[in-house]
Amino acid sequence: MRLTWRLLRMIKSFPESLDFYSQYNPSPLSMKQFIDFGKAACERTSFLFLRKELPVRLANIMKEINLLPDSLLRMSSLEMVRGWYVQSFLDILNFEAQDEETAEIYQSFCDTLMRIRNRHMNVVEMMAQVSGADWLRVDLYLTLSQFRVTAKKNPTFRSTKVVMF
Q1: Is 48 buried (19+), middle (13-18) or exposed (0-12) by CB count in 10 A?
Q2: Dist. CA 13–CA 23, nearest whole Å
Q3: Looking at residue 69, what DSSP letter applies?
Q4: Rounded-to-integer distance, Cα 26 and Cα 52, Å
Q5: Would the N or C end of the chain have less CB density within 10 A of its end CB?
Q6: How many Å from the N-terminal Cα to the C-terminal Cα in the chain?
Q7: Which residues, other chains included, contact 79 with Cβ-Cβ below 8 Å and sequence gap of 6+?
Q8: Could you tell me the CA-to-CA distances from 136 to 72, 87, 142 in Å, in that order?
Q9: Which of 122, 148, 138, 149 is nearest to 68 (CA)?
Q10: What are the CB-based long-range contacts (under 8 Å, 24+) for 61-70?
Q11: Which of 112, 110, 114, 115 is nearest to 44 (CA)?
Q12: Which has the closest alpha carbon to 113: 130, 95, 140?
């Protein structure tokens, strides 16, 4: 029951959390900094950094996805990707206000990161589906619709040759 109330509070505060974290820019890390951090950082440092950095990155990605045209946002593959990002964002927010720093918390955080990684393994392929043939189909439909509207409004436009390549 306690988990259910916690989940309900998180879902209610989701839009505010998304807006809060998306106002920040992700920390710029070069590959060298990333590798150096991985070699030298302890569990505690990684935990403290990632529990604040990942919500920022996920929130910014979700905001960018929401800027796509409505015709793309309605595609099932993109809806699935959006759902993955929402779930990952909520998973990371579970650790946002974690006061305790125990080995169990670190292990739980690590397990959560592994689930998120596995969940997002197919994001590139799913987005390729959206931007590939589906996008061409939507773009062609919109182009043809615009052509029909223009042809109806302008009779001289109908006599013009249309070349497709």
Answers
A1: middle
A2: 16
A3: -
A4: 10
A5: C
A6: 61
A7: 73
A8: 11, 29, 10
A9: 138
A10: 61/85, 62/18, 62/22, 62/86, 62/89, 63/18, 63/22, 69/138
A11: 110
A12: 95
Q: Measured between alpha carbons, how far is 3 from 128 in angstroms, rounded to an integer?
A: 36
For the chain, how many residues are written? 165
Tokens standing for residue 87: 């779930």
pLDDT of residue 149: 47
Residues 6 or more apart whose CB falls under 8 angstroms from that of 82 comprise: 62, 65, 73
Tens digit of pLDDT per residue, the chain (165 long)? 444 445 445 556 778 888 899 999 988 888 788 778 878 888 888 898 889 999 999 999 999 998 988 888 888 888 899 999 999 999 999 898 788 889 999 999 999 999 999 999 988 888 877 766 545 555 555 555 554 544 444 454 444 444 333
**Token pair listed for 14:** 């989701």
pLDDT at 128: 78
Owner of token pair 């919109």: 142
pLDDT of residue 99: 81
Chain-centroid distance of CA 12 in Å reads 19
Q: Give the residue carrying structure tokens 């809060």.
A: 20
